[in-house]
Design brief:
With 505 residues, this protein is α/β, with parallel strands linked by helices. It has 3 domains: 2-178, Ribosomal Protein S5, domain 2, CATH 3.30.230.10; 189-420, P-loop containing nucleotide triphosphate hydrolases (Rossmann fold, 3-Layer(aba) Sandwich), CATH 3.40.50.300; 435-505, no CATH class. The chain is built from 21 helices and 18 strands. The protein has helices spanning 39-42, 44-54, 81-91, 121-131, 143-146, 160-167, 202-214, 228-233, 244-256, 281-285, 295-298, 314-318, 321-326, 369-376, 382-385, 398-401, 409-426, 440-446, 451-463, 468-484, 492-500; strands at residues 2-11, 14-25, 30-34, 63-69, 103-105, 108-109, 115-116, 135-139, 153-157, 218-222, 272-273, 286-287, 292-293, 303-306, 328-333, 336-341, 345-350, 389-393. A hairpin with a 2-residue loop joins strand 1 (2-11) and strand 2 (14-25). Helix 19 (451-463) packs parallel to helix 21 and helix 20 (468-484) crosses helix 21 (492-500).
């Protein structure tokens, strides 16, 4: 008898529905799985056999053939176990399979028949809902993550026995209905680091406010202990709260990457990723033998912090050029294309030289002129030119350490939310959201300069040897500074501040 069971396969951070066809024919006992499954899928033979037998069910004799359709899509992972098991039990007529076409099945099996937690639940349940399925049977440990998807009934289980009882009408599975985003999520601001801890560097905190308000990337150069890392780690505390779509997209990424757990079923705080400078291209961009998101995707809707950017492999850093502009990364692996989002705010930090004290009045630099030139050459080139803001940090003096008036994350966040509200209203009929997304076509309309401002920009262009890309970035920055000042037209003071943020390092 032939049976058809619906499951799903993860592809990038999305998923596609998969039909698991099972046929049991007369012949020598064997199980063949076809349809471009990986080793994990093929190893399911032994898990399924033991799970069925240890659940008190009958493992059918004969030749079992399982086809996973469409055959042209690679199937990876152990989450097909439950679907293949139900296909075998349906083909051997061990339960009433009426209306089974309205069900999707996701879950890995242990040898005793328990249904175990698996990765990628959120995109798979989303794909099954889009296919029009009414129900999905999934691991109980994944129910909270799956609850982010509306429009499909969730039936969480812990064992095959529960599934069989449900279809044999002896004990129905209790649906799980809980939308965690329908209520206020637990506040996490208390656990985030606060800018009130940063003494001094008020000009840098202003620059960070501008960067976050407009979504601009930023490079900070300064001697050791000037606060580069301390400031960067506190940026998530001033970023606006994630909306529903951002939470779902970020949770999908972390689900596929296997970084969720029953204790943390979704991501509601903007990510902060700080990769080591020895990271590989696959670790940064994504990929590998089994494609998975890289650091730029894990930082989606959050911050990617590259500490000591000069120590990173230059070739690897240069690969960030396209993701910085397109906010996504396309990877090709074994003839298949995987598209991952990469909408992150880049924050980079560096010492001015190898020893770290070039230009520091309080410490003597021990680097030779050749070493200084060689090190600073790492802070040039196409990727650095694409970073919107270049800021120099100076050491904090003793009087600043004792200053009692310090701007907190709450105060900075209020300014940022004010500026972002202005941007949302301005771009409500456009395909962009923040000022950093302005292109050549929109810049004239939304970042218009008067005659006086144009003259100042022309003088700066000649004096500081700027290039057309830099001019565009200065205008975007001036637009953000003006938004923080109320959202009116760009004035001379706004342009002057924006030019300061393109300091020659």
């Amino acid at each position: 008898m032939l049976s058809k069971i619906i499951s799903a396969a993860v592809h990038g951070i999305d998923a596609v529905p998969i039909t698991v066809e099972t046929d049991i024919a007369k012949g020598m006992p064997a199980m063949n799985i076809v349809g471009l499954g990986d080793l994990t899928v093929k190893e399911a033979r032994e898990r399924i056999r033991s799970a069925i037998c240890n659940s008190g069910l009958e493992y059918p004799g004969g030749r079992i053939t399982i086809n996973m359709s469409p055959a042209g899509i690679r199937k990876r992972g152990s989450h097909f176990d439950l679907a293949m098991t139900m296909g075998i039990l349906a083909s051997s007529k061990q339960f009433f399979d009426r209306d089974i076409e309205e069900y999707g099945f996701i879950g890995e099996l242990s040898l005793d028949g328990c249904v175990k937690q698996c990765n990628g639940i959120l995109p798979m349940v989303t794909a099954l809902r889009k296919k029009g399925l009414k129900n999905v049977i999934l691991p109980k440990a994944n129910r909270e993550e799956a609850s982010l998807v509306s429009g499909i009934r969730l039936l969480p289980v812990e064992s095959i026995t529960e599934v069989m009882n449900h279809f044999n009408l002896s004990c129905a599975i209790a649906p799980y209905s809980h939308d965690p985003l329908a209520f206020d999520l637990p506040s996490t601001t208390d656990t985030l680091l606060d800018f009130s801890d940063v003494k001094g560097q008020e000009n840098i905190k202003r620059a960070i406010t501008v960067a976050v308000a407009g979504g601009h990337s930023i490079l900070m150069v300064g001697s050791p202990s000037t606060g580069k890392t301390m400031i960067s780690e506190r940026i998530p505390s001033i970023m606006p709260k994630m909306n529903r779509n951002e939470i779902i997209e970020t949770t999908m990424i972390y689900s596929v990457a296997g970084l969720l757990s029953e204790g943390q079923p979704y991501i509601c705080v903007r990510p902060f990723r700080q990769p080591h400078y020895r990271i590989t291209a696959a670790g940064l961009l994504g990929g590998g033998a089994i494609p998975r998101p890289g650091e730029i995707t894990l930082a989606d809707k959050g911050v990617l912090f590259l500490d000591e950017i000069g120590e990173f492999d230059k070739n690897i850093i240069d690969t960030l050029r396209l993701p910085l502009e397109k906010k996504k990364i396309s990877l090709v692996r074994k003839g298949e294309t995987y598209l991952y989002p990469a909408d992150f705010m880049l924050v980079a930090a560096s010492n001015p030289c190898k020893c770290g004290y070039y230009g520091d009045a309080a410490h003597q630099c021990v680097c030779s002129p050749h070493e200084i030139t060689r090190y600073q050459a790492k802070l040039t080139g196409p990727i650095i030119d694409r970073i919107d803001m270049h800021i120099r940090l100076l050491p904090v003096n003793y009087n600043e350490l004792n200053c009692q008036t310090v701007e907190s994350s709450k105060e900075m966040k209020e300014k940022i939310e004010f500026a972002r509200k202005i941007q949302r209203n301005r771009y409500r009929d456009q395909s962009i959201v923040l000022n950093h997304q302005l292109d050549d076509h929109l810049i004239e309309k939304f970042a218009f300069l008067g005659l006086e401002q144009k003259k100042i920009l022309e003088q700066a262009y000649e004096k500081y040897q700027l290039n057309p890309r830099t001019v565009l970035k200065v205008r975007k920055l001036a637009r953000t500074v003006a938004d923080l000042d109320g959202g009116g037209s760009i004035q001379t003071k706004h342009l002057a501040e924006a030019l300061q943020y393109r300091e020659k390092l």
